[in-house]
Specification:
148 residues, mainly alpha, 61% helix, flat
């Protein structure tokens, strides 16, 4: 490779000018926008890590999906009041990701335990209205609840 083919190093003045331009851009960035972009990125990556979309089957990683759900759930309240009607779209996207996680985890659980649940287990009684504590789905360990 000749000297003409190699990219030249920027001068000190060019570096200072680029840094000054970067500083100006930082002055205009709002933290709320960064938080919203982070939530959107978490949801997008979490969706890919479910492996449900065509072409993403090899990317399945339920632990990463859980982190994406927890992260988006934790960040949304910080900006939810500023979103107005758009807040519902973010909540819905988180719910959809939670459902996908639960569906995949539910499919993986019977396969990991060797198949069907044991016969003769006692039938659960319906939840009493007004009772406190986890419901039957959560007690079974099949319902994932953020932060737990």
């Amino acid at each position: 490779m000749s000297e003409q083919d190699q990219p030249r190093q920027p001068t000190e003045e060019e570096l200072q000018a680029a840094y000054a331009q970067y500083e100006e851009q930082l002055k205009r960035v709002r933290i709320d926008d960064v938080v919203l972009q982070t939530i959107a990125t978490l949801l997008e990556l979490g969706g890919r890590r479910t492996g449900l979309a065509p072409g993403t089957e090899g990317e399945r990683d339920l632990e990463q999906v859980k982190v994406a759900i927890d992260g988006a759930t934790a960040l949304l309240p910080l900006v939810e009041g500023k979103l107005g009607a758009d807040a519902a779209r973010f909540r819905d996207a988180i719910s959809q990701l939670q459902l996908a996680y639960a569906r995949i985890a539910g499919q993986a659980a019977p396969a990991a335990s060797g198949g069907e649940p044991p016969q003769g287990e006692p039938k659960e009684e319906p939840e009493q209205q007004g009772s406190t504590g986890p419901g039957p789905a959560q007690r079974s360990g099949r319902l994932w609840v953020p932060g737990q």
